Amino acid sequence: MEITEPRIQAYCENHSSPEPPALSKLSRDTHAKVLNPRMLSGHLQGRFLSAIAFMLKPKRILEIGTYTGYSTLCLAEGLSDGGHIVSIERNDELQTVHEAAFGDRKYDIRMLYGDAKQLLMGLEGTFDLVFIDADKSEYEEYLNLIEDLLKPGSWIVVDNVLWDGHVLEPEQDMSEETRSIHRFNEKIRANTKYEVVMLPIRDGLSLIRRL
Length: 211
Hints:
The protein has helices at residues 6-14, 21-33, 42-56, 70-76, 95-102, 116-120, 139-146, 176-190, and strands spanning 60-64, 84-89, 109-113, 129-132, 155-159, 194-199, 205-210. By secondary structure, the protein is an alpha/beta fold. The protein has one domain: Vaccinia Virus protein VP39 (Rossmann fold). It has a seven-stranded mixed beta sheet, sandwiched between helices. Helix 7 links the parallel strand 4 (129-132) and strand 5. The chain starts with 5 loop residues before the first helix and ends with a strand.
């Protein structure tokens, strides 16, 4: 099931600011050389992430799920002076891709490789903005683990919350992964510590504010 009709998606992209050349190249390289290029945030979502970061001007950003680094660079565009982004990626085979993508960039990007749940337990301080785009079955646990890393007014952006529309299926027909996402969506909506708005951008993005 298509959440965003392709012509509408194309129209939105054509009437949004273009990708910076480095991101356009990274997108092409990802599609040509890396498995599952559909995981890439892409033009429209990337410009949206950049806009959110520019509005917030965060000092510290946490990203759970780097993939090839497209979203990382989009988020980093809005960092305040002296700010940095910590990005966690399970697949350390992508390290050379990250080095190529980030090596000549002006941003302070600090990569961590390994299991996100373990790495999150070792982080200290608070983050102004968190982007979650990793193992969908772990979304609830990621939220639990970052709770102490947030302060009132921190923001979380969560990707793939519509999961190709499968969240609309009867719950008994859902796959385990779909059920995990649906359960996360239900719980964050009911959690009085957060305020959430879900947007049908690409595969669904939830904007969540820590109260």
